[in-house]
Amino acid sequence: CVGAYFAVTYFNKDPEPIAMEEIAVYTAETDDLAKLSWDYLGQTTTLIQSDGVWTVEADPDFPLDQSYAKVMATRLHNLVALSTLQEFDTDPATYGLDEPVCVIRATTKDGQTTTLSIGSFTSTVGGYYLTNDQTPAQLYIVEENVLTAFKYNLYDLVKKESIPSMSSII
Predict the structure, then answer these.
(1) For the chain, how long is the longest CA-to-CA vector?
(2) Which pTM was predicted?
């Protein structure tokens, strides 16, 4: 019995967690972003940030829902990849990058612009192919939440009016 006890406790130990190295794709503090521009479904949308408030570059009076811009900036804050390919087919069509699903341009307050192109979905890793113009020798695979943050055209970003809740109409 004593031997069985030691065998059970030895083999039922929780395994040590595997430390996975994060693969940095893009990093910028949300407050350091001055401009976000992206192409999605044939439309380019550009937002600019001043004093923590995002506005539409072409129409500063546009009723922009700030939460969309904040989610976008947060997703780019510390963008990491699920995986990276350093040796890959040079034909961008292989990864859907000849006609990207979305192209994101992030400009920091110091004027540095980075372009991220999102290609097709890969079921092997469960993410989207992405290239970064600052590291052209690498092909990244990123989570879907990067694309979902930018899957909007301008009129999707309108701040919607809310109707206050009422217990009765009288």
Answers:
(1) 78
(2) 0.82
